[in-house]
Write a structure and sequence with these properties.
239 residues; alpha/beta; Purple Acid Phosphatase, chain A, domain 2; 6-stranded mixed beta sheet; 5-stranded mixed beta sheet; 19% strand; hydrolase activity; Phosphodiesterase; Calcineurin-like_PHP; Metallo-depent_PP-like
Length: 239
């Protein structure tokens, strides 16, 4: 990877490290890994970073906790830069996005897709009851669930990097289905957040993994530029 692309771990309301890293390094692009917990639109929270770099993102499990948080992402000026479910050329590197998280009432990703309670959103909507419909679709709490159809849609595409909120099997709480998706898509790197740990690993077959910690900023080439925090109350490290 010749371009400098920075990957930003779960902010949980802290954006200073993202903005400072962008200003100081002027990277080709930044990819945000979810769990924003926004109280304002995303484009406002990362305004300084946006002035210095291209910004892309995926959602995490904490981004549909309220209508305010949900709309701060999906009604922001950066709404069109959601990577989920597609492949985008970012600074000359193909990135695929798998946002959201596994939910046991829909599909716990450690089970084969054929054992999912609901393989598609349409199947869930048929059973959830009209009173649970929100804005003509899934209930708010299910909007960021991963369905088997998400994996199937990406599996037919090719990518260099798979960006996801959930972890692959390199993490003790990860999912082998993400490993398999990366292999199927031809990815050489998986980058994830969610687990709040900085680490690198290599899966069988040679796929590299970069886990980015809580409010951390990392680059495959430069390492952990801002180490992830160990708690939500400590100030982020400086880039």
């Amino acid at each position: 990877m010749t371009a400098e692309i920075l990957y930003c771990g779960d902010p949980h309301g802290v954006f200073e490290q993202i903005n400072q890293a962008a200003i100081r390094r002027s990277p080709d692009a930044m990819v945000l890994l979810g769990d924003f917990e926004l109280d304002r639109p995303l484009h406002e929270a990362v305004a300084a970073a946006r002035s210095a770099s291209e910004i892309w993102w995926i959602a995490g499990n904490h981004d549909s906790g309220s209508v305010t948080q949900f709309d701060a992402l999906y009604a922001s000026a950066l709404a069109g830069h959601d990577l989920h479910g597609r492949v985008v050329d970012i600074a000359g590197v193909r990135h695929a996005g798998l946002g959201g998280h596994f939910q046991g009432r829909i599909w716990w990703g450690q089970k084969p897709a054929r054992e999912a309670r609901f393989a598609t959103r349409a199947a869930f909507l048929e059973r959830c009851g009209k009173g649970n419909i929100w804005r003509g679709g899934l209930p708010l709490g299910r909007r960021l669930a991963i369905f088997p159809e998400d994996i199937e849609a990406l599996a037919g595409l090719r990518t260099d990097v798979l960006v996801c909120h959930e972890a692959p099997s390199s993490h003790r709480h990860g999912f082998g289905v993400i490993d398999e998706l990366a292999r199927t898509m031809g990815a050489s790197l998986i980058v994830h957040g969610h687990q709040h740990e900085d680490y690198t690993a290599r899966l069988p077959g040679g796929i590299e993994v970069l886990g980015v910690g809580l409010a951390g900023v990392a680059c495959p080439r430069a390492g952990f530029i801002v180490p992830g925090r160990t708690s939500r109350t400590r100030e982020p490290a400086r880039p």
